[in-house]
Amino acid sequence: MVLLDNSRTAIWSTNISKIASNSTVGVILDTGNLVLADASNTSIIHWQSFDHFGNTWLPGGKLGRNKLAGVSTGLVAWKARNDPAPGVFSLELDPNGTSQYLLEWNSTQQYWTSGNWTGRIFTGVPEMTPTGIYPNSLYTFDYVNGENGSYFVYDLKDDSVLTRFVLGEMGQIQFLTWMNGANDWMLFWSQPKAQCDVYSLCGPFSVCTENAMASCSCLRGFGEQSVGEWLQGDHTSGCRRNVELQCSSNGSVVGRSTDRFYTMGNVRLPSDAESVVATSTDQCEQACLRSCSCTAYSYNGSCSLWHGDLINLQDVSAIGSQGSNAVLIRLAASELSSQKQKHAKKLITIAIVATIVAALMVAALVVILRRRMRREDGTANILPLLAASRLVGGVGDGRREELVSAVVDGRLGGDADMGEAERACRVAFWCIQDDENARPAMATVVQVLEGLVEIGVPPIPRSLQLLADESNYLQFSDLLPSK
């Protein structure tokens, strides 16, 4: 079987040539397995897709390792949401011979393990135990360790249930089940649970922020290495310096370094630190300045230096983990001074834009409320806070599309993409958050509206809640589906 492009050039094939094409048939089984079988006896399979995983693992597929050939069948994430090229994240059985499965970055750096098989479950996945809230599991699990190979397989007791494992482009392994009522896939389990625990998710010289509208952002003094990849949601190339450090061509410091540092507080420190002897912050800083390869340092009673790329830096202030860790990032002196000027201008611009947007949004909600209260039948008195809550938070009763369509201009006659309308509603409420640090940058807004970046559920701004002081409005938490 061969896949051709529009110029009839082969871009993929099953790479089997020992069988006659007129004696072979292609069949997609109910399991989702695409097989090439003998035309006279379809139980004779020449090739099957279950032996060649992409980013998805369906029930009945055997994820493991062929000991004789030394080949593993694992999952490989897509490079980006709209780019099925192989990415840097993978899931495979431990090549060292244990029964644990590993999530890896670039096939070298492990960042999650399933733990070993006990005969019933993997030690790192206690959710597999059929007890507690799931006393009667819908699934069967089996790990086989044979002479020729080892593999794990899961299956369903009820064929009407649709499930799949997917290794997402953001490096998380996810278990999804199709919900007929919602007409969508529902996430039941994922690892790592924290998105920022994925190794090098944001690439070098960037920072990962958990639960933010955009998880990855470049450090001060750095820009995207590949703007196109970032727009597609692939941040793994990371960021590059705007201005190079004061170094000679051979990598040594020329005279007395004029490089400076800026402080980032409340962070989880990057990986691969070097410990050096220093009794003060000044000594630690000088130790870094003496090496052109040193890009950052941290001093908290002991001195840690980082050389080369900074990987896995995480801002933990947004998740309420107010730690004492601070890292000082090395920049060219000219970059740091210019950044201060840019930062002041940026703050002024943000303040002006945010004020205008917030005023327009509040005014729009008041107008919508008044128009609905003046309807002839007088029955459509949907409270603005309730409507806003449902629009940005979603409801599980099948009425979300109806609620979103209610804010679309009626002159369109219903000719509007409800998915785009819902994204616009969500991003609008992100833009008027009380905390200016939670508001997205315009570049992020564009990515969201284009559908390139997923957005989370924004909290209802306090400014809107104040409109409800004289009425019995529901709180946002009351509208969320019960767990």
What would you say this structure looks like, in words?
This protein is of the alpha+beta class and 483 residues long. Helices cover 21% and strands 28% of the residues. The protein has nine helices and 28 strands. The chain has helices spanning 227-231, 281-289, 333-373, 384-393, 400-405, 418-431, 442-449, 462-465, 476-479, and strands at 2-4, 10-13, 24-28, 34-38, 45-48, 56-57, 63-66, 71-73, 75-80, 83-93, 101-105, 109-113, 139-145, 149-156, 163-167, 173-179, 184-191, 206-209, 216-218, 222-224, 239-241, 260-265, 267-268, 274-276, 294-299, 303-307, 313-315, 326-331. Strand 15 and strand 16 form a beta hairpin. Helix 4 (384-393) packs across helix 6. Mean pLDDT is 79; it is low at 376-384, 392-397 and 468-483.
Secondary structure layout plus pairing:
Layout: E1 2-4, E2 10-13, E3 24-28, E4 34-38, E5 45-48, E6 56-57, E7 63-66, E8 71-73, E9 75-80, E10 83-93, E11 101-105, E12 109-113, E13 139-145, E14 149-156, E15 163-167, E16 173-179, E17 184-191, E18 206-209, E19 216-218, E20 222-224, H1 227-231, E21 239-241, E22 260-265, E23 267-268, E24 274-276, H2 281-289, E25 294-299, E26 303-307, E27 313-315, E28 326-331, H3 333-373, H4 384-393, H5 400-405, H6 418-431, H7 442-449, H8 462-465, H9 476-479
Helix pairs in contact: 4-6
- Rough outline: globular
How many distinct domains?
Answer: 3
> Alpha-carbon distance between the termini?
46 Å
Low-confidence stretches: 376-384, 392-397, 468-483
Across the major sheet, the strand order is: 22-28-25-26-24
Structural class: alpha+beta
Into which percentage range does the β-strand content fall?
25-35%
Question: Would you identify the CATH H-level superfamily of the largest domain?
Answer: Bulb-type lectin domain
Helix content: 10-25%
**Average pLDDT:** 79
Please give the CATH class of the largest domain: Mainly Beta
CATH topology of the largest domain: Agglutinin, subunit A
Q: Biggest β-sheet, characterized?
A: 5 strands, antiparallel
Tell me the number of strands.
28
